[in-house]
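Before a colleague's protein record goes any further, I have to sign it off. Alongside the sequence sits a line of tokens, each denoting a local backbone shape. I want your independent view on whether this chain really folds as the tokens say. Where you disagree with what is written, explain briefly why. This is what I was given:
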Amino acid sequence: AGMSETDPAEPRVLRVLIADDDFGSRQLLSRLLNQFTRAQICEARDGREAVEQFRLCSPDITFLDIDMPERDGLDV
């Protein structure tokens, strides 16, 4: 039998997008996630970048600030 690309016993790494124009907020959430999970973290500084990162990272979950420049969180 052929080998599969992923081992079902090995959990898939969770991908998380943090979109916030406040550096401190992004850094805090990123540090917490790194401390307690093995998540792959992508970050965005504004709404435009959030949309780009969402397409590039294909996150499983997104933490999205509502009040951001370029495009607000509701628009994103």
Helices lie at 23-36, 47-57. The mean pLDDT is 85. The beta strands are 15-19, 40-44, 61-64.
